């Protein structure tokens, strides 16, 4: 879509999260300019904006055209991979920005990097926010939880947009100004660390119920669904219940959950949380154990070799003998 007027906000970085957040902003009635170093991503986002309701989203193919298409004082959200790509994007865009303009880093960034960039931006008269974005790609499109921290003046420049695009609950939008410095990224880091712990607890409950209790996927779906109607109600419990119901459509044989590789990766926020907890002398045993479990999951060959040793010693048979007692309980 061609723009005859200036956009209210810009977004650079059009991977899944960036695309969906940009479309969310446009759908809420805020004209938005978008940019990505890979041109095809700009075209892909423009096509989605057209298909999803002729949304006021405008694509640009150079940093200069992108920055100059935004109304002053400019506010630009960056959603690229943490680390050097953020610095490279800031360098490319800031060459055309002016004092009073704002950069908002919406990625999962180490909070000390945010504070360093804040100092660098201030030297050029630019404002800076580090903003945690929670909810995944679906949340980005339909309503994320937002955790902006840094320049309060910058927050005031865009709070009306953030309040509209954020998830809405009974007591208002899921966004608030967190505080100065890298506080927004710090809160998101801790949030992700807690989620690591939650996911590990869910995984271990599944493991015990299935491998010790001998429950099938239908029974597991029912149990987790029941848990989700009580005090354990959460998105993670809900989708876990749903996962047990998904059949393997490719082979038409069995459930998909039984064919998923038991090996996982991570982006680093859980590790950062454990590091900070240790630095501050704060006990975070559940999060630390969940991080260790992720490391262990990556050692699949070693785990399989160890399992054979335990099997030879009859440990699996001993564990299986416990199953009937669990089912009776």
Detailed description of the structure:
- Its EC number is 1.1.1.44.
- Pfam families: 6PGD, NAD_binding_2.
- Keywords: Gluconate utilization, Oxidoreductase, Pentose shunt.
- It is a single chain.
- The protein has 329 residues and is α/β, with parallel strands linked by helices.
- It has 2 domains: 9-180, NAD(P)-binding Rossmann-like Domain (Rossmann fold), CATH 3.40.50.720; 188-298, Orthogonal Bundle (N-(1-d-carboxylethyl)-l-norvaline Dehydrogenase, domain 2), CATH 1.10.1040.10.
- Helix content is 53%, strand content 12%.
- Strands 3-2-1-4-5-6-7 form a 7-stranded mixed β-sheet, sandwiched between helices. A two-stranded antiparallel ribbon has the order 8-9.
- Helix 1 links the parallel strand 1 and strand 2.
- The longest helix is centred in the middle third of the chain and has 30 residues, at 183-212.
Features:
9 strands; phosphogluconate dehydrogenase (NADP(+)-dependent, decarboxylating); 12% strand; 7-stranded mixed sheet; NADP binding; globular; 6PGDH_NADP-bd; Rossmann fold; 329 residues; phosphogluconate dehydrogenase (decarboxylating) activity; 15 helices; two-stranded antiparallel sheet; alpha/beta; disordered C terminus; N-(1-d-carboxylethyl)-l-norvaline Dehydrogenase, domain 2
Report the uncertain regions: 324-329
Number of domains: 2
CATH class category of the largest domain = Alpha Beta
The CATH architecture category of the largest domain equals: 3-Layer(aba) Sandwich
Oligomer: single chain
User: Could you spell the SSE succession in H and E letters?
Assistant: EHEHEHEHEHEHEHEEHHHHHHHH
Strand order of the largest sheet: 3-2-1-4-5-6-7
Report the structural category. Answer: alpha/beta
CATH level 3 topology of the largest domain: Rossmann fold
Q: Biggest sheet: strands, sense, closure?
A: 7 strands, mixed
* Mean pLDDT, all residues: 92
Per the principal axes of the C-alpha atoms, what is the gross shape? globular
What is the CATH H-level superfamily of the largest domain?
Answer: NAD(P)-binding Rossmann-like Domain
Individual helix count: 15
């Amino acid at each position: 879509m061609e723009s005859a007027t200036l956009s209210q906000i810009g977004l650079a970085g059009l991977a899944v999260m960036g695309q969906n957040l940009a479309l969310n902003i446009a759908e809420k009635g805020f004209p938005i300019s978008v940019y990505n170093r890979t041109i095809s991503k700009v075209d892909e986002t423009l096509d989605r904006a057209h298909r999803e309701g002729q949304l006021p989203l405008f694509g640009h193919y150079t940093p200069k055209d992108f920055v100059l298409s935004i109304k002053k004082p400019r506010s630009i959200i960056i959603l690229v991979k943490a680390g050097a790509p953020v610095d490279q994007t800031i360098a490319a865009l800031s060459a055309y920005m002016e004092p009073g303009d704002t950069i908002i880093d919406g990625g999962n960034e180490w909070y000390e990097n945010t504070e360093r960039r804040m100092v660098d931006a201030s030297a050029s008269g630019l404002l800076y926010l580090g903003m945690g974005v929670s909810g995944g790609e679906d949340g980005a499109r339909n309503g994320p939880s937002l955790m902006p921290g840094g320049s309060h003046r910058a927050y005031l420049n865009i709070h009306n947009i953030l309040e509209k695009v954020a998830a809405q609950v009974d007591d208002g939008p899921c966004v608030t100004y967190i505080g100065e410095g890298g506080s927004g990224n710090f809160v998101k880091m801790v949030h992700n660390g807690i989620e690591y712990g939650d996911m590990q607890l869910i995984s271990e409950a599944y493991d015990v119920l299935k491998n010790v209790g001998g429950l099938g996927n239908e029974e597991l779906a029912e149990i987790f669904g029941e848990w989700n109607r009580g005090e354990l109600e959460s998105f993670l419990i809900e989708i876990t219940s749903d996962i047990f119901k998904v059949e393997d459509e490719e082979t038409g044989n069995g459930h998909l959950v039984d064919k998923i590789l038991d090996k996982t990766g991570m982006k680093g926020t859980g590790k950062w949380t454990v590091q900070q907890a240790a630095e501050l002398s704060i006990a975070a045993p559940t999060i630390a154990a969940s991080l260790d479990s992720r490391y262990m999951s990556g050692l699949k060959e070693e785990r399989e070799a160890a399992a054979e040793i335990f099997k030879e010693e009859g440990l699996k048979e001993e564990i299986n003998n416990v199953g009937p007692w669990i089912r009776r309980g």
